[in-house]
Amino acid sequence: LDETEDQLFSRINRTFRYHIRKGESLDLEFELYSIQHEHNLRQFIRSFNEFAAHKKMNRLPFWRAKALAKAQGLTITMLKRGNQPATMHAYLNDGIRARLVTSHPVQPAETAHIQGYINKYHHWKDILYFKQQGCLWYDFGGIVRDEENGRTYFKQSFGGEHQVFYNYVKGSGPAK
Fold this sequence. Notes:
Elements: H1 5-11, H2 14-24, E1 28-32, H3 38-55, H4 62-70, E2 74-81, E3 84-93, E4 97-105, H5 112-132, E5 137-139, H6 150-156
Parallel strand pairs: 4-5
Antiparallel strand pairs: 1-2, 2-3, 3-4
């Protein structure tokens, strides 16, 4: 993320740049989702876990999200459409690297194309946010070697380079 905004944008494949511009035209509002209050954190977890159950994915346990929030290692971003949440992304964030943990639609868009525009635009806004916060890396959370994998294609279409990172948990309090 140490390049200029224009340089970062030019690394994104042409089709995705077009989709991001389409997302810009959808009257979307980017904001940080406050997790200072446990109620908001519970709402986020409930929303993600409903999506995960529908997609047959692993759910995110509340205790894990609460521990990350308490250690100030969790950042949640949201796009609103109108006054309603459209998508939410959660990141592990250590100030140097923001690693995507979850991404899900809260209110599905009217078409799959529009949902795609919203999601790509959300990632672009996240990239700009973490760049502004001084992060050096925006990590989509891993890729697989299968060239037919749609998620890998999506992540690689944003440019950048393949890096190997390792997860760790930074303790606080008596466990530190």
